[in-house]
Amino acid sequence: MNLKTTIASLALCTAGIWAVAQNNIIEEVAWIIGDEPIYKSEIEQTYQDMQQDRTPITGDPYCVIPEQIAVERLFLHQADLDTVEVTESMVMQQVDAQMNYLIANLGSREKVEQYFRKPFYELREYYATNMRNRFRVNQVKQNLTKNVKITPAEVRRYFQELPDDSIPYVPLQVEVQIVTLNPVIPRQEIDDVKARLRDYADRVNRGEADFSTLAILYSEAPEAVRGGEIGFMGRGQLVPEYAAVAFNLNDPKKVSKIVETEYGFHIIQLIEKRGDRINTRHILLRPKVADKDLTDAINRLDSVRTDIVDNHKFTFEEAARYISQDKDTHNSNGIMVNSQTGTTRFEMSQLPQEIARAVGSMEEGEISAPFIMRDPQRDRERVAIVKLTRRIPAHQANLSDDYQLIKDMYEEAAKNKIIQDWLHGKIRDTYVRIEDGWRGCDFQYDGWIKTK
């Protein structure tokens, strides 16, 4: 940021008005930070976006938002100095995910445009700019804090110095192991599903039906309401079996062979390829599980439980390794890992509701009776037994039981202090002008308004 440029610019806007020469529009300037103005229209647009996204704002938005923009400008300026670059494919993957989310929730591209009152391409570019900025800001923060090293002694000292009212209260937690079985689906049911998909594919290939119409009418995928369109995805965002077929499609008028994945059976149609990303539509059908198949699976798992508990033929851990069909846990003795924390501990609300009900009244070491649970991702039922490995009662955090939690708290505090100190120094050393009407704020950071 160039101070001489800023002084020259100030000659044009002493009353807080900035002339945009390209289209002769007069813009009100709220702040100037370095040599960059923050326009009132920019603040208003951000405020509108935050309201649409239901982002909470603590305080007066006309104080909070310009300060947030100013802080971001400081980080982005540092990113320029450090020549921080982001991978465009990463940006576009995030943008595609965001746009797909909006379409899924609002119903169509047209409805997204109506809701945001912007053409779809403008909205994509808006999110792409925000995403690039976010990646660059995060990279600057990582660069600032990359040398933070936490030792056990520092964690102990941090905990000992914490005021009692700052020590977190840890709710009841449990550690759980699981064994699951998927009901056996009759061959005839699978053949019937494949026959239906072959019929749909033949009708599209002969030009007798539109793929998206068939998807709306028959597909069991969440994307059915959009004609089966899943949006642009990278290979790593798709299950391997789907990706292998989708990325080999070249003719948008033809339909793929039948593809089996963990979600069911698909046929796929190419919409468009863009470099290493692809947009496809698909029709998904899932073979149905009959009540008899579920009952048979329950009986099989009940026999497994009996062999563990009463006959001592093998252990729960061995059952998890050699019998369980839970792909996330069968290689780790059935131990469930909390995806939110990366640890083996779960609060009851973090467990699938069927498992929470099963372990709610169990004792440590006890194995549940078989029960039916729904896999929400794959929208199918399976049968499970669980073992309550450990129950940790609700308590105030302590070092012996909650070392990782306290370590994470200390590491976050140490990194936050480095960033805050850097920000205070940046604010002190950067030219900032806040126009009349925008000054009467209780800002989060000191030093914006310079005193002589």
Structure report:
It is a single chain. 45% of the residues lie in helices and 18% in strands. The longest helix has 31 residues, at 399-429. It is built from 14 helices and 14 strands. By secondary structure, the protein is of the alpha+beta class. The radius of gyration is 29 Å and the shape is flat. The two termini are 21 Å apart.
Structural class by SSE content: alpha+beta
| Count of helix runs | 14
Low-confidence segments, ≥5 residues, pLDDT <50?
1-24
Oligomer: single chain
As a percent range, the share of helical residues equals 40-55%
* Proportion of strand residues: 15-25%
Q: How many β-strand runs?
A: 14
Tell me the distance between the termini.
21 Å
Shape annotation: flat
Q: What average pLDDT do the residues reach? A: 89
What is shown here, in short?
The protein is of the alpha+beta class and 452 residues long. The chain has helices at residues 3-10, 40-52, 61-81, 88-106, 109-116, 120-145, 152-161, 187-205, 211-218, 240-246, 291-309, 316-322, 353-359, 399-429, and strands at residues 17-20, 25-33, 36-39, 169-170, 173-181, 229-234, 259-261, 264-274, 277-285, 346-347, 371-375, 380-392, 395-396, 432-434.
